[in-house]
Amino acid sequence: MAFRRLLVSSTVPFLFALGLGACTAPDEPGQQAADTASASAADKLSGSQDAANPTRNAYFGELHVHTRYSFDAFAFGTVATPDDSYAFAKGEPLQHPAGFEMKLDRPLDFQGVTDHGMYLGMLPAMTEPGSPAFEHPMAPQMRSVETVDDRRSMFVDMMPYLAGADGTRQYLNQSVVESAWADIVAAANRHNDPGRFTTFIAYEYTSAGGVRDNLHRNVIFRGDKAPLAPFSRMDSPNPEDLWAKMDDWRDAGMDSIAIPHNSNGSGGRMFQRTYYEGAPIDPAYAQTRMRNEPIVEVTQVKGTSETHPGLSPNDEWAGFEIMPYKIATNIISAVEGSYVRDAYRRGLELAESGAGNPYKFGLIGASDSHTGAGAFEEDNYWSKVGLLDAEPNLRGSVPGGGGNAGVSVADGEAEAPATIRTQDGSGRTYRDTYYHTWGASGLAGVWAEENTREALFDAMRRKETFATTGPRIRMRFFAGPELSGLDMTDPSFLSAAYERGVPMGGDLYGSTESPAPTFMVWALRDPLEAPLQRVQIVKGWVTPDGTTEEKVFDVVCSDGLEVDPVTRRCPDNGAGVDLQTCKITDGVGADELKAAWQDPEFQADQSAFYYVRVLQNPTCRWSTWDSIREGVEPRYDVAPAIQERAWSSPIWYAPA
Amino acid sequence: MLDRLRGLLTDRFTVFALVGLAFFGIDMLNSRQTDRIHINQADLAMLEGRYELQAGRSPSADELEALIAFHAREEILVREARRLGLDQGDVILRRRLAQKMELLLQDGLPEPVITDVALDRYYEATRDRYVRPARIGFRHIYLGSGDPPAPVEVDRLRNALRESPTSEAWRGMGEAFMLAREYAPRPQPALAELFGPGFAAALFDARSQSGWWGPIQSAYGWHLVRALTYEPEAPLSRAELGATLIEDFTASERAVAEAEAYDRLARRYEVTVDRARP
Fold first, then answer.
1. Domains in chain B: how many in total?
2. Strand pairing class (B131-132; B234-235)
3. In this predicted structure, what is the pLDDT of residue A446?
4. Is B147 found in the same domain as B73?
5. Which residues of chain B fall short of a pLDDT of 50?
6. What residues 203-262 of chain B have any CB closer than 8 A to a CB of chain A?
């Protein structure tokens, strides 16, 4: 412990000396440690412990955040440790690599630090004399990075090593990986505070298929024990091998789930109809996948993967925070097989054809920040790749000179930095990065009896989860034929709904005598954010010919407005946002929306899924906040305002 | 890469190189006598050890010869570079040396001695850092959103509550609420996050009010509330701090020792700055 601390604290001034901490005032390291420790103690003792709630509480957390142990985060200038990241999640400030302070507007209830399993801890070790990684062929380059372009090059030049290209494998020091992992595990266990703040031992399995088709997932452990080292893409790039390993771990008493993310950048491979090697999916695949991957991260900084206008042309809200590229490239990603609504439909089709449903997953959101600190608020946004996108002009929200600060890789080759792009006839020029397609998102919402590892993990396994784009919108969703007539205002409503129906993530099975199910939706605004505009139910179903359809139903509107029975839409509630000040329209929107709903097109013999989408009144996008602060017009080719939202895990209906 | 090379070719470097080449030429003319590079047992062990760390096995005989040749080549280049003064003004080299020295300083520091007396002294000196904020624990009955509830309805509820102050009947009153009806003690900011700032402030302002009162408005609507416990801001005792105090004390002692070690070095130097600009 003392040795570890010494290593960490002695590395920090070295990095500052190397220019990694440009613009930062390096605190005396010992003092920094003392402050963090006392703050977390005060936090711990000012917390509270509620009695377990049988009708469950909504807990908000982060299950995707990187620290210095991730190869890319370190190359991007991040020196934050897992300890720093947990302190940040509890509400403490953390210094961004560019020197400013990052702080949440309120603490989170839980977090799992998820550093990249491959090359875990290797890059910081390259700067530590005495570490075997100090002799790595890339170490001299790591120790001499100075500029944003150097960092970009470091990231790109690491690629062959991460892919385990011929002649590179011997340079990975397993002892370094294991030592970093031990530190991550210890930090998670140290910060776990049942009833107040929950942590998870976790890491990211960072694999790809085809041409940089993103297959990344985060592995989250249930307990306080973990294997000696993560199973990474260095072990196998095939996620099916990860699941086999997770099955082994489970047999050895170490339960875990894997949470796929950035399906939007998967080129259609995240939710494909075949095994990794190409054989058609069968029930064995479906079972294995669902046992190991009950939930998916639908929204994060690098875009939202609910659906795409090309897949859902009749959904007016489909074009939300679309990030069209494969990850860390500027190659356009195929949309089919890359978005969760499409996956739900494919799942129904596969099940209908007898192959089982491998895509019956619930939803969460997360940030994927690489600074140790998630940026969830539009007006308090630092994007995610450290020094590479630390400034508005670097992330393309305001005009700025210079070359491409983004990471552009195609077919493993670094592309020449693209020059500046000019477009809207105004003469303004922006850096040609893809960071302007990123967003201040998202959070995981989990319905659990109490804030403990066991309760939260079990809720994720049963998919009683929801995703938000940052605001703490809370939502309930129940369904069942027995719910009809239940009074949603009665104080005993929740216990009755649990007793007589299934919550989000659950299954409904039809029977010949049971009536059509009733759906009950209930959404509560974030008390510190904009009010709610409407609640929708998204339905997908199998048609008699084995294909699927989808439809979006508005089910309850704000301001006493009624859903139009023909268009299935709420009338406009008149909510808007002033793009000069970001002030939102006063006096419109709802604090709470609830409704009982029956599917007017319900067919007892059609398999279907139903999930809820809650929309807030419009607010400024982060890029507009950036431009207002710099006193310039918002960029012409990004949405100036967005409707923050939340999605429930679906409820699936299957005929008898 | 080319950019970086170009960056290195500063004027100063060019000057150095030219001067160096001149020296080199003179050396050649003087047919400089041969330098000796002796690779001893310790050097060999170091080369083998380094190789083993990377490859996970000992080098073969051929590989060892290659390592020796590489080491000799590096040594020759280093000596020639020194001869040309290239080690002067090299930023990376400078930082490496500073880093090595820093590690050496830290390694030499004694582990802090933890005694009750020392912990007491530290606690007394820093106790303003260890404060638990005021907290309120409460129950509430949700009366729905929109317009304030009718006074008649509120009176009816309060009468019912007065009649059965200890029973659990309150749980069945009012409207369904999505979150919990009873909250363990929380500081005001935590309540503001849950119910909105106005609600949290109202609850703290009326902390001494007994029984059920209200309605007060939250971000969601109207509530009757009843404070269960109020705990004023209080210093945290040593017992409550537990291991945290020891961790903080140790970190602080270490930081002081590091600063003192540096100061002892720094005292041997006088730093002067010529701030005049031409």
1. 3
2. antiparallel
3. 98
4. no
5. 1, 5, 8-9
6. 218-221, 236, 240-241, 244-245, 247-248, 251-252, 254-256, 258-259
